């Protein structure tokens, strides 16, 4: 798997939300038949939300070389031997001209071709709608081969999982928590609306039953503490009573929401959807501080079967993972999971791999997690054991980086 880079390579922030695989090149043939092949162009193009033929054709236009492509076999070629760094610079040019919004510079744009052949870019992030510069040769090709409209369920992302946030290269955390126009929010809302319509009557009945049974439900601090203990979270009456300080994630609404999740999972292991989970979290207001929610949510949501359940809730984790602070909290959630279910320490490498492939955690975040022992969420000894268990993912990342360097050296 190729390493990922920011779609805007001028942005140095390692937590920048828009990612794409590093463009790889391979020289084939000799003499007049020499050509440059792009083995992962399909993945790069999916991350950019553009047909792979567009950047390939762009390279041909810029280099004055013949470009050939086959979407069925995912083989994309430009005649001649071309330096890998040069091709990546040309890709930056393509992104600037045909991917980035000219207003907000985010790559959340869709190309629209009018009947008379004019191309406009529609930005889903800021609402900008403007014309593409029609002077470039590629515009003729785009006009004759307009992009196909994506289906409602979306395409596979660059990492091979469903696009987490539904936006270019976002198989990552969402940085703008208040951006209600992003694709993940739309999907979650659509899912929540379906849940609402399907369970309208059931909810009314449940509310009546809850009102009737309220006196019978044990809401004492001791009962809440027992429910919290099942999550591997220390809880006392003072924590359950109020919102608590900013360092105690088990406090108040966060611990209560985690207890609710645990109860829902206990009642029906397959019944709690990602849309329901996020909708309830948002209704309770706990999504406003995801760095406090994630450490208690992870052990409430998962158990020994974490690797089977994790893909189902990746959209929610991606939505909550908004900053460097929350990615550390997500690591704390993994530690809390191991504390609650010791056998899950064997699953740590696969958990991290799944989060990496979905761009919920990028390479820098995983390396930081796997090498920095912390006693913020669990004991120092347990934190060391979790880091030791993460060694295989570090070795895999080192090997992937080494292979990429070898490919670059061979290309040069």
From TrEMBL:
GO terms for biological process: formation of cytoplasmic translation initiation complex. It comes from the Eukaryota. Residues 173-182 have a biased composition (Acidic residues). One of its GO terms (cellular component) is cytosol. Keywords: GTP-binding, Initiation factor, Nucleotide-binding, Protein biosynthesis. Residues 146-156 have a biased composition (Basic residues). Residues 143-182 are annotated as: Disordered. The keyword ATP-binding does not apply. Residues 247-407 form the W2 domain. PROSITE patterns: W2. GO terms for molecular function: eukaryotic initiation factor eIF2 binding; GDP-dissociation inhibitor activity; GTP binding; translation initiation factor activity. Belongs to the eIF-2-beta/eIF-5 family. This is W2 domain-containing protein. It comes from Rhodotorula taiwanensis.
């Amino acid at each position: 798997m190729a390493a990922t880079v920011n779609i805007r390579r001028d942005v140095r922030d390692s937590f920048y939300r828009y990612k794409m695989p590093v463009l790889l090149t391979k020289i084939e043939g000799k003499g007049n038949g020499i050509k440059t092949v792009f083995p992962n162009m399909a993945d790069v193009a999916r991350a950019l939300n553009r047909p792979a033929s567009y950047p390939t054709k762009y390279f041909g236009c810029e280099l004055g070389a013949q470009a050939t492509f086959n979407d069925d076999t995912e083989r994309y070629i430009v005649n001649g031997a071309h330096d890998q760094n040069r091709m990546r610079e040309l890709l930056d040019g393509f992104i600037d001209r045909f991917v980035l919004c000219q207003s907000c510079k985010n790559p959340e744009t869709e190309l629209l071709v009018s009947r008379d052949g004019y191309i406009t870019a529609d930005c889903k992030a800021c609402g900008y709608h403007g014309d593409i510069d029609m002077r470039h040769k590629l515009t003729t090709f785009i006009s004759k081969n307009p992009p196909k409209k994506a289906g409602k369920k979306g395409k596979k992302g660059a990492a091979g999982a469903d696009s987490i946030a539904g936006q270019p290269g976002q198989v990552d955390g969402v940085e703008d928590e208040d951006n209600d126009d992003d694709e993940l929010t739309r999907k979650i809302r659509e899912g929540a609306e379906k849940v609402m319509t399907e369970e309208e009557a059931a909810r009314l009945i449940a509310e009546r039953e809850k009102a009737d049974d309220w006196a019978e439900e044990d809401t004492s601090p001791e009962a809440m503490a027992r429910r919290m203990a099942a999550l591997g979270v220390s809880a006392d009456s003072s924590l359950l009573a109020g919102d608590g300080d900013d360092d105690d994630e088990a406090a108040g609404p966060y611990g209560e929401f985690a207890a609710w999740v645990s109860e829902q999972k206990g009642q029906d292991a397959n019944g709690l959807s990602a849309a329901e989970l996020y909708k309830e979290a948002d209704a309770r207001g706990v999504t406003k501080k995801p760095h406090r929610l994630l450490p208690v949510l992870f052990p409430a949501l998962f158990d020994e079967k974490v690797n089977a359940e994790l893909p189902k809730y990746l959209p929610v984790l991606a939505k909550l993972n908004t900053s460097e602070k929350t990615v550390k909290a997500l690591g704390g959630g993994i530690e809390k999971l191991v504390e609650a279910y010791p056998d899950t320490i064997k699953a740590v490498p696969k958990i991290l791999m799944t989060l990496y492939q979905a761009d919920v955690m990028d390479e820098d975040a995983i390396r930081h997690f796997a090498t920095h022992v912390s006693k913020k969420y669990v004991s120092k000894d347990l934190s060391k054991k979790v880091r030791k268990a993460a060694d295989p993912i570090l070795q895999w990342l080192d090997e992937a980086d080494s292979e990429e360097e070898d490919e670059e050296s061979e290309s040069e």
